[in-house]
Amino acid sequence: MNPLFDALENRLASRAPRALNLPGLVLREASVLVPLLVREGSPYILFTKRPTTLRHHAGQYSFPGGSRDPEDVTPLHTALRETREELGIDVSGVRVLGALDEVPTLTEFRIQPFVGVIPQGLEYRPNPDEVEFVLEVPLSHLLDPTIRRTERRSVRGVEYDVDFYTYGSHVIWGATGRILRDLLRLAAELSGAQTPAR
User: What value does the mean pLDDT of the chain take?
Assistant: First the structure.
């Protein structure tokens, strides 16, 4: 197991994830798994590309996840269930390292991200209704500050920053980019790498 994963688990255990506090705004619950894995001894992060036929976030890169169903006991159950449904893998061996801060979306969801390590040797069987393809990106690439750019956007009179991460022809942004920024900030602190300030 990569030593960074142990350090991440310890760091996430020592901090409570920040919950959203948006008075007057009711957001639907959702959860995602930020899947980490090891390829040839190096840590990678897994993303899925959503089909262009979907109603929400069509064609964007995302982490496996979705809305919390009534039968989901906890938000973590949602993240693992959705990962199983989207990637077609056995999630019983996923090592959950902890939770990141909640993130809102423009489609009125509040996303609780969980970081988890996928066991080696699993074969993906993506659900074509939800996943166009699976993308694995080296963590070292994502920690390179030159592949990130930030744009200022305004929605409903509120200005905020949008981060874009480029990997070849792939561009990761939106809520996934905000979740990724939170994880990369922690990973940079633990590995001594340099990333732009939050």
Answer: 89
